[in-house]
Design a protein that fits this description.
- The protein has about 425 residues and is an alpha/beta fold.
- It has a domain of about 260 residues: 3-Layer(aba) Sandwich (Carbamate kinase).
- Helices cover about 35% and strands about 25% of the residues.
- The chain contains 13 helices and 20 strands.
- The two termini are about 30 Å apart.
- Catalyzes the phosphorylation of the beta-carboxyl group of aspartic acid with ATP to yield 4-phospho-L-aspartate, which is involved in the branched biosynthetic pathway leading to the biosynthesis of amino acids lysine, threonine, isoleucine and methionine.
């Protein structure tokens, strides 16, 4: 008997029929002899609808009350799912994040998990019940308030539960069959991966891949949790995300060709249209100015991704510094820099939110040359101009025009031999 933690996203529990479909999958897992703990998201677009409602009532919502509101979405879906399981003749108990022992810091809207004390969950499992937990939410001991975990919160809830309960695997269900070599909505010929390393998955998630959220992958790697990304709408075995020292599951290894067992050079191509570029024009090219600029940006709360500094113009002794931030952070960074323009001494600011980031990721890049050449050659053949370049040990990212990103991704995907024989299937259309 194994202990399996399953997570179902909003598209998986979007309506009554979907909830019953998920309940059947959970019951089938229980019938197979396994203990089951489930983390569930709010139904469909419930969270977005609640946010819209909050903004209609109060354009600036109190963070504490917003968390109270948003946490109700998962409570609805967890209770309905437990009811559906009861109707199939199995015992199920639903728990809120606080009841499940999901302890967080006091940050409303983006709380981080600091401890998990799943006493009530253990008791329910020992009594033979299926456990359903509301994802995305927790509880702060000091303030005694409900908190929400922010983007990817239900994924993170599931992984944290798997770590605390020492589960055999954490299955993350969405509307695609696993982790693909690219977003199948952008690259139809994307292939499903059987196995990906947690290191590669961190880079893919950080650079636009949306099947798994980076916080959940980080937590899984830190606590030794094996993730299996699967689809609610098919019986595909999905993709296993393996951390250091983890073995390929026998069920997967048996289906892999021997040639596929060797580490590929490139695991996937990620795309991101959620970035904006800020250029600080005419910065005095003297020591300390870059530090001043990015200190101001950091204090604004903007999260900087890529940075490029031009060569200083000999005639003026000035240079330009460009960096990318999430689109939602760009206005904060611009306001903060504008307020410090006189002190820093730059000439002007330029904001560009029509960019796209393309990233090539693969652990095999450590030991293979020519990856950069292949990437740049593929982009040149389709006439795509590169505006910025950033690299890590297993990633190369480039910034291009946003309206050229999809075509660039398809060309690069083909250039690295990642295309599959048939178009990928997306069952519900949202990726979650």
């Amino acid at each position: 008997m194994a202990l399996i933690v399953q997570k179902y996203g909003g598209s998986s529990v979007a309506d009554a029929e979907s909830i019953k479909r998920v309940a059947k999958r959970i019951v089938d897992t229980r019938r197979a002899g396994h203990d089951v703990v489930v983390a569930v998201s709010a139904m469909g677009d419930t969270t977005d609808e609640l946010l819209d409602l909050a903004h209609q009532v109060a354009p600036i919502s109190a963070p504490r009350e917003l968390d109270m509101l948003l946490s109700s979405g998962e409570r609805i879906s967890m209770a309905l799912l437990a009811m559906a399981i009861h109707s199939m003749g199995f015992e199920a108990r639903s728990f809120t994040g606080s009841q499940a022992g999901m302890i967080t810091d006091a940050t409303h809207g983006a709380a981080r998990i600091v401890d998990v004390t799943p006493v009530r969950l253990r008791e329910a499992l020992d009594e033979g019940a299926i456990v359903i937990v509301a994802g995305f939410q927790g509880f702060n001991r000091d303030t005694r308030d409900v908190t929400t975990l922010g983007r990817g919160g239900s994924d993170t809830t599931a992984v944290a539960l798997a770590a605390a309960l020492d589960a055999d695997v954490c299955e993350i269900y969405s509307d695609v069959d696993g982790i693909y070599t690219a977003d199948p909505r952008v690259v139809p010929k994307a292939r499903k991966l059987d196995v990906v390393t947690s290191e590669e998955m961190l880079e893919l998630a950080a650079n636009g891949a949306k099947v798994l959220y980076i916080r959940a992958v980080e937590y899984a790697r830190r606590h030794g949790v094996m993730i299996n990304a699967r689809s609610t709408f098919s019986s595909s075995q999905g993709t296993f995300v393996l951390g250091a020292g983890m073995s390929i599951p026998a069920a997967v290894a048996a289906t892999l060709e021997e040639s596929a067992m060797e580490e590929p050079i490139v695991a996937g191509v990620a795309t991101d249209l959620g970035q904006a570029k800020v250029t600080v024009v005419g910065v005095p090219d003297v020591p300390g100015k870059a530090a001043e600029i990015f200190t101001v940006v950091a204090k604004s709360g903007a999260n900087v991704d890529m940075i490029v500094q031009n060569v200083s113009a000999a005639a003026t002794g000035r240079t330009d510094i460009s960096f990318t931030v999430p689109k939602a952070d760009a206005a904060l960074a611009l306001r903060a820099l504008a307020a410090e323009q006189a002190g820093i001494g730059f000439e002007s600011l330029v904001h560009d939110d029509q960019i796209g980031k393309l990233s090539v990721v693969g652990a095999g890049m450590r030991t293979h040359s020519g990856v950069s050449a292949t990437l740049f050659e593929a982009l040149s053949t389709t006439g795509v101009n590169i505006e910025m370049i950033s690299t890590s040990e297993i990633r190369i990212s480039v910034v291009v025009r946003g309206d050229e990103l999809a075509e660039a991704a398809r060309v690069v995907h083909t250039a690295f031999g990642l295309d599959g024989d048939i178009d990928a299937v997306v069952h519900a259309g949202t990726g979650r």
